[in-house]
Amino acid sequence: MRTLLALLLVVCGNLWASEAARLDQAGFAASHPPGSQQLVLRNRALLTWLWADVYAAALYTEPNIAPQAALREQRARRLELYYFQKIAREDVIRAAWTVLERQHDPATLARLRTGIERLHASFRDIRPGDRYALQYDPRQGLTLERNGETLLRSDDAELARAYMGIWLARDGLSEPLRQRLLAER
């Protein structure tokens, strides 16, 4: 029994160490823009599927605003994803629609469809090392970036809430990921 427990502790320790190493590999800056205090890193999390690390995620908010308050009050926030795996554009879009259809009624989706389709039209196949970011600021709207390049801007606050909700709202892609990103620390 002691041998089994010791083996379990070693394996779990290696898994935790590997998660920390993967989060460090993502290289999330402490603030955004780097070196400023406009938005600060609140939490990081790793999405793993079938034992494969898919991406690391980071949530940034204003310095004195907690993650959940940033969502509730529609405050400035940034969700950044650093990918470890290759993913086809069509698979990303399919997964996004699956979650959006689970989270929203048909009338809401009909209202958001044009904005969502514009967003999806800017997607490309994902390669390991790619970094996507969704940023919302009440004064500037929603911005989608890929590897530091702005792909899309929208002033639709409802689109920002819905699309960031894929990761940050209930019934999203991953409840453990959501909880870690929104944790109060």
Please tell me about this protein's structure:
The protein is α+β, with helices and mostly antiparallel strands. It has one domain (2-182): 3-Layer(bba) Sandwich (Chalcone isomerase). It contains six helices and seven strands. The chain has helices at 2-26, 67-72, 89-103, 106-121, 157-168, 175-182; strands spanning 31-32, 39-49, 52-61, 77-83, 131-137, 141-146, 149-154. The protein has a seven-stranded antiparallel beta sheet. A hairpin with a 2-residue loop joins β6 and β7. α3 crosses α5. Mean pLDDT is 90; it is low at 1-17. It comes from Geopseudomonas guangdongensis. Keywords: Isomerase, Signal. GO terms for molecular function: isomerase activity. This is Chalcone isomerase-like. Residues 1-17 form the signal peptide.
Low-confidence stretches: 1-17
Shape: globular
Termini separation: 36 Å
Strand tally: 7
CATH architecture group name: 3-Layer(bba) Sandwich
How do the strands of the widest beta sheet line up side by side?
Answer: 1-2-3-4-5-6-7
Fold-level CATH name: Chalcone isomerase
Structural class: alpha+beta
Helix run count: 6
Classify the beta-strand content into a percent band: 25-35%
Q: What oligomeric assembly is this protein in?
A: single chain
How do the SSEs run, as a string of H and E?
Answer: HEEEHEHHEEEHH
User: Under the CATH scheme, which class?
Assistant: Alpha Beta
Give the overall pLDDT as a whole number: 90
Helix content: 40-55%
Sheet with most strands: 7 strands, antiparallel
Compute the gyration radius: what is it?
A: 17 Å
Number of domains: 1
InterPro entries: Chalcone_isomerase
Keywords: Isomerase, Signal
GO molecular function, one term: isomerase activity
Protein name: Chalcone isomerase-like
